[in-house]
Every structure is written in C-alpha cells, then in structure tokens.
Amino acid sequence: MNRLAGEPSAYLRQHAHNPVAWQPFDEAAFAEAVARDVPIFLSVGYAACHWCHVMAGESFEDPAIGVYLNQHFVSIKVDREERPDVDDTYMAATQALSGQGGWPMSVFLTPEGKAFYAGTYFPPQPVSGQPSFAQVLEAVEEAWRMRRDQVEETAQSLAETLAQPLWQVNTNVRDAVELPTGQGPDWLGPGEKALAAMAAAEDLRHGGLGQAPKFPPTPGLEFLLRLAASGTQTAAQARGLAGRTLGAMVHSALFDQLGGGFARYSVTADWSEPHYEKMLYDNAGLLQVLVRWIRLLESEPLEDQNSWVAACPPSVAPLGGAAAREAATATVHWLLTELRLQGGAFASSLDADTVVSGVHHEGASYQWNMTELQDAACEIEENSAAALDLAAAVGQAMGISADAGAGDSHPLHPGAPLTGRQQQQWQQLKPALLRRRATRIMPARDDKVVAAWNAMLMRALAEGAMVLEEPTWLVAAVELGEYLHSVHWDGTLSRVSHDGVARGIKGLLEDYAACANGFLTLYAATGDTRWFEFSGELVAAAEQEFIVDSVVFNQGAASAGHPVQGSRCADPFDNATTGGVALLAEAFTTWSAYTGSARHRAMAESMLATVPELAARAPRSAGGMLGAALALAAGPLELAIVGAPGELREALIRQAWLSGSPGMALAVGDGVDTQTVPLLAGRTAASSPLADVCRNMVCARPVESPEELQQLL
Fold first, then answer.
1. Count of other CB atoms within 10 angstroms of residue 376
2. Which of 104, 105, 239, 252 is close enough to 271 for a disulfide, judged by CB 3.0 to 4.6 Å?
3. What's phi and psi for 180, nearest 5 deg?
4. CA dihedral sign of residues 333, 335, 338, 341
5. For 10-161, where are the E strands, in sequence order?
6. Which pairs count as long-range contacts for 294-301, CB under 8 Å and 24+ apart, including other chains?
7. Are 693 and 700 in contact (CB under 8 A)?
8. What is the pLDDT of residues 397-446, one digit of tens each?
9. Does an H or E element contain 410, and which?
10. C-alpha span between 696 and 507 (Å, rounded)
C-alpha cells in the first residue's frame, strides 16, 4: 500500500497515486524490508526538481514498474529538503559507488539501510550505454538473490568508509585557555590560495566560475566579500571577482528580470538559460551577498573603487551599486509576495515546471517571444509603429530575437548592464509585461517551512534592513523570528513545519547553527534581548546535540525515523548553502565575542583547523569555512554602542552597519540593562552616546562621532 497520501511534504504527496507502494522513511518501512528479506529502493528528490518529475512520469507511473518494485523491493520516498541528513549520507554513498550525484537519486539498500548500488536518473529505455530503470531493477534483484554475500560485503565496506570522523573538536576549557585569544592559526594564507584558485576558474567571457552548468557560488561570494573587506593586498582582487560574478548573474536570465529572485542555476555558460526552479535558500543567500556587496561599495572611497573597477576585464562588468540595490529590492519583493506564508514564514520553493492541462513545461511562465512583446507594447503605445519599435528595442536588450514567434519563446536575458536608453525603454514596457504574466499559470509552490532556510533569510532581511535603511524588511524579519521561535522551538528545534504546525522532524546541524546566527543578527538589528537569550539557548543545544566525543555530527542521536546508516559525520564543505560546520563555527565565534567565552572560541578554532587542507583540496567548496576563519582572524570586532536613543546614537549605529569587518558583534544599549548581554556589562550611559570598539580583549578609547568610529572600524 502506498503510504504517502497523508504526508505533509508536497514532494511525497506528488507520488501518493503512483502504482509503487511507496513508504516514508520510517521504522515501519525498514521493518517490512527485514520481515520480507528484500532490498530497499530509496528514491530521493524534492518538489521543485524537474528531472524528478520526468522520472516519475516515465517510470514511477508505469504499472509494470510498480508491480516489479512492489514484488521485489520495499520502496521508500524521501524529500531531501525535509531530511538532508538522509540525503547527505546516501549522496555520499551514491558518489562513491557511481562517481556522480544529483537528483533524482536512486539508491539500493540492504534491509538495515546500507547502500550497495546507486545512481541518479534512469531512463525508461536504454540510452547511450545507460541501462533502463527496468534493467537496473532486474540486475539488482538478481544480485540480491544470487550473490547476497558479495552485496552485503560491499554495503558493509562502504558504510565503514563513510563513517570515518573528519576531525576532532577541542571542548576542553583548560586546553582552550592555554591558547591566547587571537593567537591561533593564520588562516589568511589559505584564503589567498583559495582566491587564486577561484580566480583561475573564472570565466572571463561570461562571468562566474567554471563552465556549464553554472551555479551561483554563494558561499564562495561570502568569502570573497569578507576577504575584500580585510584590507590585505588581495582585497582588490577578491572585490573584482565577486563584483564581476554578481554582475554576470544579475544581468542575466538567472535573475528574474520581471519579478525578481534567482533561479537555481544556469544550463548554459553564459547564464542565458536557467534551470527555472526558484529556491528559498538560494535567494536568502544571494540577498545577503547583495547586501554585503552594497555595504562594501558604499563604505569605499570612490577613488579606490575606480582603481579596482579599471582592473576588471572589459567583457564582464562588476555589479554597480544602483543595480545591486535594485536587485536586492526586487528579490525581497518577490520573497514577500510569492513565498511568504500566513504567520510570517516563507515557503521552500517554486517549481521549475508549469503544469498546463496535466503536462509539465519547464520555465513556461518566464519565457517570451517577439509577438508577446509587441502585444504588450500595443497596450501602452497607441501608435502601432512606435509600439513595434519599443518591442524591438526591448527584445534586443533582453535577448529576444526579432523572429522569435509563437513556439519559440525565451527567458529575458540582458547579458550585460542596460544602457540609459535601454533602461528607459525597459521600464516603459515592464508594467505591461507584468500584467500579462499575472494572467499566466505559475509554477506550484512547496509550502514546507524549513527552519535553516528561514533563519538564513531572517538574517539577510535584518542585515539588509539596516544597511539599505529599509524598516519594512526588519518588520518582516521580526515576524519571521516570532514564527520560528513559537512554532519550531519547544526546548528542541524542529526542522520543518506545515500550516503553522511543526512536522516532528528534529532540527539538524544547519537548522540549529543557522538559527543561532540568524537570531544573533536579529538581536544586533533590534536590540531586543529576547533574541540574544534565545541565541544562547540554540548555541548550548547545538553543542549538546552535535558535538559527541569531540566529533561534529550531521544529526542528533535522537533524529526522527530510522537511524541513518553510514556517514553521520558532518561534511565541512559547502553545497548550495554554507555548510553546517562553518555555520556552527561562526555561531560559536560570534557568541564568544558577545560573552567572552573562551570555550566557544576554542571550539570554533578547533573546527576551523582543517581550513588549510580544505582550501587546498577544494577551494570553491570551502567558502563557508574560509569565511568563518576570516571572521575569527578579524577578532572578531566587538562593538558596544551605549546611550540614550536619538539622532546621535542612530548615526553611530548606521556607521556600525556600514562596516564590512567579518563577524563583528554589535550590541546597542541605553546603559540601564547591563546584565543580559555581557558585551554591555558595566557600560553606563554618558552625556552623549559612545561607541566602544574592542578586539582580542583590548578596547580602544570610546568615541562619540561616526567619523571616529569609521576610523576604528
């Protein structure tokens, strides 16, 4: 019997009517496999995944495939967004067994959950040497029946290999205090080597790193911006690489030129053909990158800016400040209008496909042809010749050829910054195009609320509100914080909620760490000590849950569902988002800056001790760890602003938020409550608000003007 109909996950419910007797990932499914003594077919995907839909239509809806799977296997469906711990573990197995990974992911397990064969998408018929899904099923079943010992030996060997710890974490306070604060390893060297490797991978023709398919290197951009703010000799090089990459993405089809927000990745090297799914985590991360890019530009003298811009290759222009503000604002507008749910939380994604009359059409909602541009232009231009000229000009600017008629639609792809005249024409036609798009069938939304991704967005909104002076963004961040605190927290953190009710899936490493960082930023932006205290609870819980016998784990020992076999040790590398280890190291670093905890600083240093090795092995996947290391190397700065609310204090706060110093801990108080936040302890209000900047337990003279504060920062 298919047991997915009652599952909250939109992805699981998509498969509730397949002829396959799908089971959720739970004890009952594994118990059935043990009782029947049959292998498990584990299929992992997510609601917005285009190729997941394709394999479902080709194979999982095939009655013959359903009969074979039901007879010889126990079939389990997993939403990778609900259970990234399951996904990470079996993705490692898939990569080890097949040499590649991706979704849909197809893994065959022993009844105990150990992988022995794996792949990704399997076609319905053999193609280019790739076996059909039916052939794979028959071969696996035959191996299980005829060569059982060999299968189980492979599974056991792989599980043992994947279970090896990646590092040890120092949790001993006595050892910690022997290492003077700020005298740990020098992480700048590995950072500069990583920069050189990233620069060597830059596509100097189209921008970005590597070739097709081309993904937003979000954690890497975070690292580059922190390095750019370091004041070292490589700062200008890091700034240029980050700016060019951002410029290439924002001025392309990857960015929704009409509605705002970024697609998952580009199929082409020139960013002209996106894979159309729009994910919360991508847009939360890229919003934060845009905010930090804007901050970097606005805090930099014009003559310095001109010098590194002049050094950029002419083929790829760095993202300008006005365009960055426009992109950030459009992204927030899209998030608030299309992903925001009742109660203040945000949905996980919009699908890649538009479903019209039961047929999936990838990207159909976002594509245009010249006839459609002309029809839109006729709405605003009474003169037909002027309308045709406007459509032709916009089409040329947006990559829509003059002969692109019905059936030959394309996404809007500028490919470069618009000229002043092009920008004027685009703004003239844009409202009519938006009205027409509002009448189209839009992709389905996955309303699952994931704690980690919402916390990442909360952090970006709070930081963006302060840097761009957008108070409504801070209101949205606070409402999101209230939701996460009231719905996802009851002494432990839940990863997922639906319709305002926690799903019962225990929070994972990235959930705890992202929430700790998010609520620390929310405290810095609001001064509300509730969020500081809650951050402390999250930091303490993360340490207890995920550091066991000095090893960082991906999940707590009491995670919901069947225990995951194989690797449970946290992967230090990034994926689409910053890795959980880097997020936790950053949370420990910031918490130590606010509280003076040598213990948490020592743990952060210990977690980051592998940075040189990681940067040497895979610099483009180590951005999160490198960025966290730069924050630690910068002190981080501890900034306390104390005084009565008013114009003078606000000017100091404004200057503080324009600082690009990595990992800076900012506390604002009125000098009355000096007990809740240790960084404010003993700091009473003077006749004028004062800013006190400290680093490595050494404080400069308090200053009262933004100009003096800028010099200290």
1. 24
2. 252
3. -55, 140
4. negative
5. 40-45, 74-79, 105-109, 115-119
6. 294/321, 294/324, 294/325, 294/328, 294/467, 294/468, 295/467, 295/657, 295/658, 295/659, 295/660, 296/225, 296/228, 296/229, 296/239, 296/660, 297/321, 297/324, 298/467, 298/658, 299/658, 299/659, 299/660
7. yes
8. 999 987 766 678 999 999 999 999 999 999 999 999 999 999 999 999 99
9. strand 410-411
10. 33
pLDDT computed for residue 686 by the predictor: 81
Sheet with 115-119: strands ordered across: 74-79, 40-45, 105-109, 115-119
Distance separating alpha carbons of residues 681 and 169, to the nearest angstrom: 30
pLDDT band at residue 172 under the 50/70/90 scheme = very low
- Mean of all residue pLDDT scores within the chain: 89
Q: Is the pTM of this model over 0.90?
A: no
Phi, psi angles (nearest 5°) of residue 569:
-80, 140
Contacts 24+ apart (CB under 8 A), 438-443: 440/354, 440/364, 440/365, 441/354, 441/355, 441/356, 441/364, 441/365, 442/350, 442/354, 442/365, 443/48, 443/276, 443/277, 443/278, 443/350, 443/351, 443/352, 443/353, 443/354, 443/365
496 in Cβ contact with 540 (< 8 Å): no
Q: How far is CA 196 from CA 241, 387, 616, 623, in A?
A: 10, 49, 11, 13
Q: How far apart are CA 388 and CA 378, in angstroms?
A: 8
Q: What pLDDT does 269 receive?
A: 96
Nearest residue to 531 via CA among 467, 588, 462, 466 = 462
Say how far apart CA 196 and CA 193 lie, in whole Å.
Answer: 5
Over residues 116-125, the pLDDT tens digits come to: 999 999 999 9
Contact (CB, 8 A) for 276 and 363? yes
Give per-residue pLDDT as tens, 299-353.
776 556 555 565 666 668 899 999 999 999 999 999 999 999 999 999 999 988 8
Q: How many CB atoms lie within 10 A of CB 466?
A: 25
